[in-house]
Automatic annotation (TrEMBL):
It holds the Pfam family Phage_integrase. It comes from Streptomyces griseoviridis. Keywords: DNA integration, DNA recombination, DNA-binding. It comes from the Bacteria. The lineage of its organism: Bacteria, Bacillati, Actinomycetota, Actinomycetes, Kitasatosporales. PROSITE patterns: TYR_RECOMBINASE. Residues 9-18, 169-181 have a biased composition (Basic and acidic residues). This is Integrase. Coiled coil: none annotated. Residues 175-389 form the Tyr recombinase domain. PANTHER family: PROPHAGE INTEGRASE, PROPHAGE INTEGRASE INTS-RELATED.
Length: 405
């Protein structure tokens, strides 16, 4: 530059490669020439030759990965990866977006894919992400992203999050999860506004989920056949209700029997609003077609959890049943009983009547029956009483021995 200054001789093109003493050149699977330079040092030539032997073997075995493809940040990879994902349910999409924006991006968004390491991810998930279910969903999303980075032309040679472990889920006291009794449900109904009583009866007598009950359309009810069809639900996205074609799972599409009390609840609501028996197409889900709904709010619109909860909490408190239960995972205090517990009341009733577990699973819309087995059993007091009844003869004999002594 001193001998030929640019001001006099003009700017010259610089070499694009390095100026190391040994330059290992090779071609990638696409035929493009690549190179890596090794500095002047003892053994530099041997290192360059060993590198060429290894990289050429990986090209032949189709195991070659361009290191530069893994040098993009995790945020850049998200911008490529997220638009390519299959369309999911709105609730699933919102959950993944929340996991990315609230947990993954703030901590790892500026890191390059090739710099992510197992132990750092494990430490972060264990110490910084709070709540078992939150950790599980965050790890699930991170795993998907990095697994696809391996698949996409091997941007990284392996998934560093594949072996990240979660601690065991928190244990729950059965007393905090068991549903209220039917007598307790009757007490709650006494303190509910008259408008909402048919809905409470209906939930207790059918076991439908909230979205399934509030999304029930008159055209899906067969009063003569005493059953209804669950074919869609009402869901909520950031405060906005929308129709969704599929229930929680494929098992949610089902036929549910109607007890006499459930029939009365449906007839009471039908007499108030005279719903039309047409079933409009869902479309984008924004048009609720409330004139087809069986259960509605006082003004004739679709029911929301928020408005119903404003009547539910005072009712369980007035009935003397409300108690706050600490969530073992989040540490938050939650009210018992919940509206969802009415579904468990119905399932427990089926179990008590001797309905086979497979049939309970079908009516409730469960994919598997394991949850039915442990959740919808008798209370601890009932089990204890049954055990004492079986042990009664031995206990009486032991008492007689003690008295004799």
């Amino acid at each position: 530059m001193e001998e030929y200054p640019p001001e006099q001789y003009g700017e010259r093109n610089r070499r694009r490669d390095c100026t190391g003493s040994w330059q290992a050149r090779y071609r990638d699977p696409d035929g493009r020439q690549k190179q890596k330079c090794f500095p002047i040092a003892e053994g530099g030539k041997r290192a360059a030759e060993a590198f060429l032997d290894d990289v050429r073997s990986r090209v032949r075995r189709r195991e070659y990965a361009d290191p530069k493809r893994g040098e993009i940040t995790l945020t850049q990879w998200w911008d490529l990866w997220w638009p390519a994902q299959p369309q999911r349910a709105v609730t699933t999409t919102n959950r993944k977006l929340s996991a990315w924006t609230a947990h993954i991006q703030p901590r790892w968004g500026r890191w390059r894919l090739c710099d992510l390491e197992f132990i750092e991810l494990q430490k972060w998930l264990t110490s910084e992400v709070k709540g078992y279910h939150t950790r599980r969903k965050v790890l699930e999303l991170l795993n998907q992203m990095l697994r696809d980075a391996v698949r996409d032309g091997k941007r990284i040679p392996f998934n560093p999050a594949a072996e990240v472990q979660l601690e065991a889920p928190p244990k729950k006291d059965a007393e905090d999860t068991r549903p209220p009794t039917r007598e307790q449900c009757a007490q709650i109904r006494e303190y509910m506004p008259v408008w909402y009583r048919p809905l409470v009866v209906f939930l207790e007598e059918t076991g439908l989920r909230w979205g399934e009950a509030t999304g029930l359309r008159w055209g899906h009810v067969d009063l003569e056949g005493k059953h209804l069809k669950v074919k869609e639900v009402l869901s909520e996205d950031r405060g906005t209700l929308f129709r969704k074609a599929a229930p929680k799972s494929a098992a949610g599409f089902r036929t549910v029997p109607l007890t006499p009390q459930a029939v009365e609840a449906v007839e009471a609501m039908a007499a108030r609003f005279r719903p039309v028996d047409t079933v409009s197409p869902i479309g984008d889900g924004r048009d609720l077609h409330a004139d087809e709904l069986v259960f509605r709010g006082p003004l004739g619109g679709a029911l929301t959890r928020h408005n119903f909860r404003r009547s539910w909490l005072p009712a369980i408190q007035a009935a003397g049943l409300a108690r706050k239960v600490k969530n073992a995972e989040t540490g938050r205090l939650e009210w018992w009983p919940r509206v969802h517990d009415l579904r468990h009341v119905f399932a427990t009733r089926l179990k008590d009547l001797g309905v086979p577990e497979k049939d309970v699973q079908t009516v409730m819309g469960h994919d598997r029956g394991s949850k039915v087995t442990w959740l919808y059993q008798h209370s601890a007091e009932d089990v204890a009483a049954q055990v004492l009844a079986v042990m009664a003869p031995e206990l009486k004999a032991a008492v007689r021995i003690l008295k004799a002594v």
